[in-house]
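LOG
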Amino acid sequence: MLENRELNTYMIYQEFDQSDRGYWFNFKQQKFLHNIDTFYYSVKLCNDFTADTHDRSVLQFRTRLRMLQAKMSYNDSIPFYVPGIGNMNLLNLSYGKYYNVCLECPEYFHVFMASQVPPGAGGRESVTCEIIVQIRSYMLWMYGVHGAFERSLSYIQGIVDMFDLQIAYIQENRIDYCWHSNYLSNPEKFFDIENFYKMRVDRYKGANYHTAKVGSESYEIDYVSLGNRGGKCFIRIYLKSKEVVEQGYKAFFFKLWLFHGLISRYDLYCYEKAYVRRSWPYMTIARLLFYIEYGQSEPMKESCRRFAEQYEKSGKVTDVMIRLAGQLTPPVHLITNVEYQTMRKGTKSYVLLPVKDNSAHGAARRVYDYLDNRPLIVDYLTRDIFRLVEPAGDSNKSRRNDCGFWRALRRCRLVDSPRLPDDLHMVRDYNRKLNKEAMKRRLLNSVVVYGFYDRGLNEDSVMKDCYNALLRMNDNDLMDALRYKRKKARQFNGNELPGITEPNMPQKYVLLDRESGVIYDDDSIDSLDIQDWS
């Protein structure tokens, strides 16, 4: 981590006064943030779901879902109302071999149901669970693992009651434990293959590495994994900040990292710029843009502008750009994620201690017992399954002390608390606004490319590209767009996209019919019949 004496070597830090330095560069050193990032659980029903069942409730379920699925086309979805609970979406999606029914609560979780399961060995009762629930990471980080589980379970109970089915038991299926950290300022050195093998204590045979090129002479290690994805425990250590930028989703992590001090406001500025572009190399350009906006040396700002323009033309980051960014601004704090992916084939053998009496939770007792044992499970994973020790010392590595990074990870608090209402509202708005900026950029890029397809290579203004794309639409285009909008609206969660609270920006542009002289504003456009646009 960069201390003040190191920051003082960068021009932007020298130019800032003490107040600006604190505002832009304050963060918490060697910080860890822990959570359960992925949570699958399975539900076993009392009803007979085998192929030759005579259970009336199961037959009713199959008939109802078959009728709904017949109305769906490829990659389609239709509303599915759960009485007393709320709306879900029925998706044309399957999971694994048997789970051919998928219900979605947008942005929160997916419910996969099997219309039939295989019989047990020797014709006995099937041991295959009929329902698997996948809770998405956003819900787990925003509402906590207990809150997310209980919300999803209310939908499962509603679906079960809807078809007069009965739950036998509920059990964990897959749980991923993760630690986000800014501890490592130089992951390349720490995870250098020779150094890493000196530190690791585990029973895995090898490790898989992925590296990425930085400029023409350097590289970064952005992914290390041990084990197999389908095994009892799969371990991966990777640059979480890079994943969020390049995948173009989960922008809420930026705000969470800022809340907890893992990154500074300067880091946030650079991450946001790169996120909108969905480009990790653009982080170098973001640092130059920061100096353009807040630096004081005009010659340096001019150099930054020239390089930013050069990038826009070539799409490449050069060594000279990297060196200039390194002279003007500090490197961005990287967020490393250490993740244990645990599967049911391993966790079913865990001996759970009776921390609390969870008998009142009925069929869900196993899940509550498992979550109560979380500190013991985490201690077991980070001590006995895989750990990192000092690279030198006792010839028997297992007797060495944990390295500083691992000691800090194991001391991290295991807190399962949802966001406070104000924080939740702030994260929702931030997530929406940043994704809006990213979508706007992709929209404009698509409009420009459409202009090339429509009119060949041209030097028309971007404004002309925009209104040309709009005016080329006919009634069929608009009807298709309307159908897509209705479909897409079901893929968003109304709780996460509340009404816009800030005042609407006044629109500077309107549509003008040159032949009739009619000006179409928002009200008149909304009142038009689709045929009027043809």
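LOG (cont.) second protein
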Amino acid sequence: MRESLFGIHIIVKDEAEMLPQCLESIQGADEIIVVDTGSTDDSPILAGSYGAKVVKTLWQDSFSEPRNEALRHANTEWILYLDADERLVSNLNAVRELLQTTNAEAFTVLIDNKLGPNPEDCLKHRAIRIFRNGRGYQFTGRIHEDIGQSIVDKCGSSFIKDSPIRIDHYGYLPQIITPKNKVVRNKELLKKELAEEPNHPFYLYNMGITYCQEGHLEDAKAFMNKALIHTPDVAPYRATLIRDLSKIMLELHEVQQAETILRKELLIYPDYSDLSYLLGESLKMQGLFEASLEAYQRATEHHNDGYVMEVGINSYRAFNKMAQTALLLGHLEDAARWFHKALLVHNTYVPALHGIAEAFRQLNVPDKEISILLQGIVRPQSSDDYAILTEALFDVGAFQEVVDSIPEAQLTVPRLLFRYATALMQCGNYADADQILYRFASITETEDIERLFYLRSICQWEQEGRLREEFVAEIPDFIRGPLTDLDRCLLEDTQSTEKSVKFRHLSECIQKVIREAVSLHCLYTASRLAKLKPEYLVLYAKELYYLGKTLQSADILLDIFHQNRNDEEIMFMIGELLFDKGHYMQAAEIFETSIENGDENPKTRTGVALCYLHLAAANITEAISLEPDTQTLLNDLKKIAESIRLLNRSSWHTAWVGFRRRIHDEETSHLHVHDC
């Protein structure tokens, strides 16, 4: 019997940046073996400084080779293997306790794959990482090297147990995976494997993942479909293959195909929460909201950590989706309750915070009470907490509550400073906003210095109609010219050709300021800029529309239409305005004209289909009034009504949320659109 209980094996190549945190997490292990496959950085020196035995070998286009090389140098009863971009989270004593009293041959561990900076940016899965030494087990495969099959071949799967040991994996973070070009490397290794075994399902599946990482979804789907044909029903990765294939189908908007495969596979994996969640997504995308609620609910009923699973998919993510669906159905109390359930699990989950604020806003809860509710949920301490809190308040138009919620000490944080200033501007308090931005610029530096001076300029244009001389002197050189030229342009009274040529170089600056000004409800400045040139008026009209100012934008849009200065976006807006007023024939003509001119937007086609369905419903209703006992017509009317209901759920229509919803609701109560 070996004296040392367990050792830890790592393979590296140029991992000096990540290796220290890995080695730090395993200090105290009985043995550490690091196999270096050709580093040109300090990886071998670092490994030695942490007490590791460093073995050097040549890279042979196979991850199994260095893993097996480490086994030849092992002197412990058990082996736990890691990558340099991983960290052992569990205490080493917990590993020892697990291994001292067991008849197992191997253990799986829980791996948290970090995908981003937030707690929800994580994918969990189990993998065999601990196994007995001296049994002749060997790794196989050039890539995604596997020890499990060797163990199963020698002693069966019953001697492989699950463990509570946890590992964090950072290798999928964008800032790590991109510089190392791992996707290209993996693709080349997979090509070699598939050249030898063209129908190997595991490598076909992983080639699909690689194409997905490159953004080539059709290729990814093709490889995964082929993998599915050849994958045995008992393959441990089969359920994950179904999950990933379904996600790709949804990305490609193949929602009915995704629904079909998910319903079939849920009979095999009824406790796989990700599949239930994805079924909910496919149903929601088809407008089947009630059925999607049931699928999301099923996702919350299972907690099997044996599957690859997105963090929160069986709790706060699913509750949040249920709440969002309830909002779409107009079930506001249910929505608020489910958003709250999501936040009880993850109190800074941004979609749920914005959702609960929106639900209570639609329930006419006063802004002050919404602010108190959100503060009680978030319990802000850090600048990130305050940013999350105030962005949710800002989005529902609780601008004064944003100002009241940010402590003075937090106003040195750029993200919060901009939020504070823009909330003041939304309240019409331009003097204080300008002063806050001035104070900030004088005490710190920000990467977004251009936006800071744009905002200050808007404040002064809104207050005084021009820029102050002392302010102009403060503007950095690289934007002083455009802003001062723009200021002079606004002060001129004519729209001459000479001025148009003179200020042509300001086009990008003007467009940025118009967008910023409209979004902050600074319409005096935006409208002045819009008058400088017809193309700016078009931009102004569009931005007004998206702000919810449909009444104010309607006349401008119609003028643009009659002057034949349309684009697809304007045509859609006009069609939508006519549709909302019930002018279905005119709306259909607008949508059809846009399609004839090359508009390929599926929303336009949905709009024209709905117009004709409404016209058909009106004709049938009239026919029924003449012959009320005609059952065929009644059945036809019922089918048309169901089609209208489902198409209206397809997200074809512009959606206004938060404070834009407030503006739009006020506008639509007295919107008047002339017939085109």
